[in-house]
Amino acid sequence: MYALLLAIIYVAFISLGLPDALVGAGWPVMHGHFGVPVAYAGILTMIIAGGTIVSSLLSERVTKRFGVGLVTAVSVTMTAAALLGFAFSGEFWMLCLWAIPFGLGAGAVDAALNNYVALHYAARHMNWLHAFWGVGASISPFIMGYAISAGLGWSSAYETVGLIQAGLAVVLVVSLSLWKKVDRRRPARAQQDAAPDATTAPEPHPSGHVPLRTAIGIPGVKLILGAFFAYCAIESTLILWASSYLVTQRDIDPATAATFAALFLLGITAGRFLSGFFADRVGDRALIRGGFLVVAAGVVLIALPLPTDGFALTGLVLAGLGCAPIYPAIVHSTPANFGERNSQAIIGIQMAAAYTGSTVMPPVFGVIAAGIGMWILPLYLAVLVAIGLFMSEALNRRQRRTAATEALHIRVPAKR
Q1: Single residue among 128, 158, 182 that ends a domain in this structure
Q2: pTM confidence score
Q3: CA distances from 182 to 24, 56, 219 (A)
Q4: Is the pLDDT confidence value at 74 over 80?
Q5: Cys-Cys crosslink for 108: which of 32, 75, 182, 257, Cβ 3.0 to 4.6 Å?
């Protein structure tokens, strides 16, 4: 039963990744079909990002009210409906309309599933699950490419992925009773790094949920939000601008640059598969720290003004490997850092911070690069790495001080 539900969650994570690259892969054809400028892709992505942020912030209340299984099933159903809506849209405004349930469904299921895995499964599964998300994100461009090259049209790719999502929604609905059984028989989650900070946990709300303001006010939450924001800004900025940097600053052939930009994503996926094998032994804190340090080493290699391009290309792949464990480890450590009662609310806020960093920071770099030059990319990334590492280490120091204080109180013997 426990293994069966885990298998369903693995499939769900592949499904989470499937729609994410469809807009980018199909837009060169789609914008001509709808007769809109290429830049209108930004409108779609902003609407989708807005929906994910809103649903992430509401995920704790909704999940407490309806349960993870039902929220996941309904969210995947919304995503499937949106994808099929994309496939049958005849005007651009219709795409914008369907982008709303697309974003709302994606954000809700992301926050709900991440918290469920953090509570129920070991760190290795969190890494492998996010690797499976990468598998899904890598498959969808091939689906779009085949649909266009075979003369089926971009809409058939959306229809195909939408039907896959609909099939998963049926599986999730059928498995609703399984989620409830596993909840009742949940084993204790392995605590790699820290115990919940009971001294700072808020009092339970009468409705059972943790209000947004209360969750943000828990000591240490703002630190992890800053680290998460910085990480997602690094990842999305490299995805968008790495190829342009290699071409303009290193005079690398565009085809080669595009290949290595793709290897950055493959590095993330492969790195998550690899880190899953030692995540339980190393622990979440070490994975986060090590990940940021490896990204920093990759950024240094990208920035070195050497005559050979091998260092810059190696640095890009190394940055992908460093990025791999950070996201899963931050999410998985949330119940240990802030308590299981608060984890759904905090993970929802973390997802909102992630989407905000991914949406806002790449365009910010574009504005900076337009005024200063593309050469500033390594420095921009270095600042983000420093912020992420500083914030995560500040949280670690705070948690160690709290644990030491509590241990001191426990060890003080009563006088006779």
Answers
A1: 182
A2: 0.78
A3: 38, 24, 31
A4: yes
A5: 75
Of 342, 294, 340, 334, whose CA–CA distance to 314 is shortest? Answer: 294
225 and 88 housed in the same domain: no
Tell me the C-alpha distance between 253 and 257, whole Å. 6
* Domain shared by 60 and 146, yes or no: yes
Work out the widest C-alpha separation in the chain, in whole angstroms: 87
CA distances from 150 to 24, 31, 157 (A): 19, 19, 11
CA distance 280 to 121: 11
Closest CA to 358 of 223, 224, 221, 229: 229
The domain total for the chain is: 2
For residue 167, give the CATH number of its domain.
Answer: 1.20.1250.20
Rounded to whole angstroms, the Cα distance separating 15 from 32 reads: 28
58 in the same domain as 7: yes
Q: Give the domain range for residue 155.
A: 2-182
Residue pointed to by tokens 């791999």: 324
Position 22, amino acid: L
Q: In which residue are the tokens 């240490």 written?
A: 220
Residue found under tokens 């490997």? 321
d(CA 406, CA 238) in angstroms, rounded, equals 42
Distance (Å, whole) CA 274 – CA 28: 34
Q: Using CA atoms, how far apart are residues 102 and 89, in angstroms rounded to an integer?
A: 14
Tokens linked to 164: 């896959």
pLDDT digits (tens, 9 = 90+) for 336-395: 888 878 887 888 888 888 888 888 888 888 888 888 988 999 999 999 999 999 999 999
Residue 42 belongs to some domain of the structure: yes
Residue 289: name the closest of 356, 403, 404, 193 by CA.
193
Mean pLDDT of 130-157: 83
The answer to whether residue 390 sits within a structural domain is: yes
Q: What pLDDT, on the 0 to 100 scale, is given for residue 295?
A: 96
SS (H, E, C) 94-137: HHHHHHHHHHHHHHHHHHHHHHHHHHHCCHHHHHHHHHHHHHHH
In a domain, 369, yes or no: yes
pLDDT for the residue numbered 2: 64
Same domain assignment for residues 60 and 163: yes
| CB-CB contact of 236 with 353 (8 Å) | no
